[in-house]
Amino acid sequence: AAAGERAFMSSACALCHTVRGTGAHGILGPDLTHVASRHMLGAGAVRNTPGALNAWITDAPSLKPGADMPRIDLAPATMHAIVAYLETLR
After folding, report:
1. Which of 8, 47, 72, 76 is the most buried (most CB within 10 A)?
2. Segment (H or E) for 63
3. Which of 80, 77, 58 lies closest to 69 in space, CA to CA?
4. Which helix (H) or strand (E) element contains residue 40?
5. CB–CB of 32/19 below 8 Å?
């Protein structure tokens, strides 16, 4: 999760999303401070599981047409680390 936090903070993630108590203060995307406590992602588009979170980050519009989040192309290890970090945000 620590590697995922570093990857999140050094990527475009932190430019669009807020995670309170961190350097991520984006205003375009949803506040992810408690994302792991949510049952659903994308306003009810998919259940909040690690696999769905990975799919959402990778290509949100394929899961919810019209979603504003762009397709993100990250190395699998980086994606895994970011998902592990987001899973800690309760």
Report:
1. 8
2. helix 50-63
3. 58
4. strand 40-41
5. yes
Pair 85, 33: CB distance under 8 Å:
no
Query: Which residue has tokens 């019209």?
Result: 66
For residue 86, what are its two tokens?
Answer: 């987001």
User: Could you read off the pLDDT of 23-34 as tens digits, one per residue?
Assistant: 999 999 999 999
Q: State how far the Cα of 90 lies from the Cα of 86, in Å rounded to an integer.
A: 9
Mean pLDDT of the 40-45 span: 95
pTM attached to this predicted model: 0.93
Q: For 25, phi and psi rounded to 5 degrees? A: -130, 35
